[in-house]
Amino acid sequence: MNHLPQAWGRPRDDVYGAYDSSHLQTSGPNQHTQSPVVTGTSVVAVKFKDGVVIAADNLASYGSLARFTDVKRLRRFNSQVVVGFGGDVSDMQYLDRLLNSLDIRENYSSASDSPLHAKNLHTYLSKVMYKRRSDFNPLWNHLLVAGLDGEQKPFLASADLLGTTFASSTLATGFGAHLAQPILRRTVPDEDSVQKVTKEQAVELVKECMKVLFYRDARSMDKYSIAVVTKEGVDLKEDEKLEKQSWAFAEGIRGYGTQIN
Amino acid sequence: MTSIGTGYDLSNSVFSPDGRNFQVEYAVKAVENGGTAIGIRCKDGVVLALEKLITSKLLKHGANKRIATVDRNMGVVSSGLLPDGRHFVSRARDEAAEWRRFYKAPIPTSALANRMGSYVQVYTLYSSVRPFGVTSIVGGWDPESELPVDGQVGSGPSVGAGGKTEGAQHGGPFLYMIEPSGLYWGYYGAATGKGRQSAKSELEKLDLAAGNLTLEEGVKEAARIIYVAHEDSKDKDFELEMTWVSSLDGPTKGRHEEVPKELREEAERLAKKALEGDDDETDDKMEE
């Protein structure tokens, strides 16, 4: 009987044959993330005259399985910035910790100095994302940064896993880019129209988009978080429920389920 | 110090025959020349205060802050050689960040004091280094509620393995002082620097162990004590620097921050008045 420590926990050689140590080899190419694992779906956001509204549902999917149902994908950075995360949840957690340490370092100097604003944070995050894609080790996320810029004006911009940046008066990631963006653009077609939109209208508009996304995106959920960023600060609600759903339209959809034709 | 000049004070890490490390004692001397620094542990927070001596009229008033923030919920004030204090703070910040990286949670004040005590102590062991020329006061508020782990996004299952003690008390205000030897104790009230003797006797009068002093009272007492401690070196100008940290429900929301200008000025006004009051009393007695 082989009693040597290196054989502990291993199948017995005399019964099962020698262990094929080629399974243990560590050489070969390094592999980084090839695809996301646990994912969050769309984030939608729209600017209005005094600030920005941003929302994301509370679901983290494992493939098509609705795995975690209370995941908060909007993270408040300080009193004037919120970051919304679509894509891989563990990469989101990494970025959250990164932002946490950034915030701690910012507060080493006196708090009365001007804090990082949304534009600063977007520049920083986009550089993090681009660095990681250049290392062939991307953070598998699509971020929306919502808040106020250095002149206290509404700011909304995105950064994705390639380090691509984009700014617009309305933005949506993932499925939302296809389903929510056209709805948002009906009310806010361009930068000028932002001035005509009130906070109430913007919140209503984003809620409508969350509803449409729940109707048509199979990786979405009816529980969501919504944040309004204005000069008064961040109003973040993390446990909202979709209201006034109407599934009547589903009757007219053909091509799936148990329909006869 | 009769043993001075006997050769046992020339190198760190060498004991004198009667069991003293003179380099450490000289470091303590360096501290005794620094501006007075104090810390008060109140029932709902900690106040740190510093008598910042003005070394030049060309320095901008209110700039060059000396009380530093470590993590979010802790402050460090030190007395002695300023660059040594800066290095101490830098190390404390690294320790706090490393703790967060490892445990995904903020470092408790006691753990930071322990680590910094060990760090400072190492500088008494080798002949290639000199001890820290500072005594540092660390004040912090450890969260009493259960914090989410850094990066936590959800609450996890609502049922399952528990293992937590019901009704256990966590967190609160903490105050530690670390000396050049690496010695550190937890204090109700701590004082170091030039005016430490009078500051200590004032702190003792407050009966801090009873835990009745509120944070706002603590701020006013801290300002007064710094003014009292300054009496002996009246010829020099100084600035009062004060920071505080309270619970999440308190004025600083669990963060270590500068005491707001209005409150600090009010505290200074009362401190000056208290000192004048003392003078008046003595004047009256003299007249009688």
Structural write-up:
Chain A: This is Proteasome subunit beta. Chain A: It comes from Glonium stellatum. The complex is a heterodimer of chains A (about 260) and B (about 290). By secondary structure, chain A is of the alpha+beta class. Helices cover about 25% and strands about 30% of the residues of chain A. Chain A has a single domain (about 40-240), classed as Glutamine Phosphoribosylpyrophosphate, subunit 1, domain 1 (4-Layer Sandwich). In chain A, strands 1, 4, 5, 6, 7, 8, 9 and 10 form an 8-stranded antiparallel β-sheet that branches. A 5-stranded antiparallel β-sheet of chain A has the order 11-2-3-12-13. Chain B is α+β, with helices and mostly antiparallel strands. In chain B, the strands form 2 sheets. Chain B has a 5-stranded antiparallel β-sheet, with helices on one face. In chain B, strands 3-4-5-6-7 form a 5-stranded antiparallel β-sheet. In chain B, β1 (about 35-40) and β2 form a beta hairpin. Classes of the chains: A alpha+beta (about 260), B alpha+beta (about 290). The interface of A and B includes residues 89 and 93 of A.
Strand and helix map with partners:
The complex is a heterodimer of chains A (261) and B (288).
Chain A: H1 13-16, E1 38-40, E2 43-48, E3 51-57, E4 60-62, E5 65-68, E6 74-78, E7 81-88, H2 89-106, H3 118-134, E8 141-148, E9 154-159, E10 165-167, E11 170-172, H4 175-179, H5 181-187, H6 199-216, E12 223-230, E13 233-241
Antiparallel strand pairs in A: 1-4, 1-7, 2-3, 2-11, 3-12, 4-5, 6-7, 7-8, 8-9, 9-10, 12-13
Chain B: H1 22-32, E1 37-42, E2 45-53, E3 68-70, E4 74-80, H2 82-103, H3 109-122, E5 134-142, E6 172-178, E7 184-186, E8 189-192, H4 196-205, H5 215-230, E9 238-246, E10 256-258, H6 261-287
Antiparallel strand pairs in B: 1-2, 1-8, 2-9, 3-4, 4-5, 5-6, 6-7, 9-10
Keywords (chain A): Cytoplasm, Nucleus, Proteasome
Main location (chain A): cytoplasm
Subcellular location (chain A): Cytoplasm; Nucleus
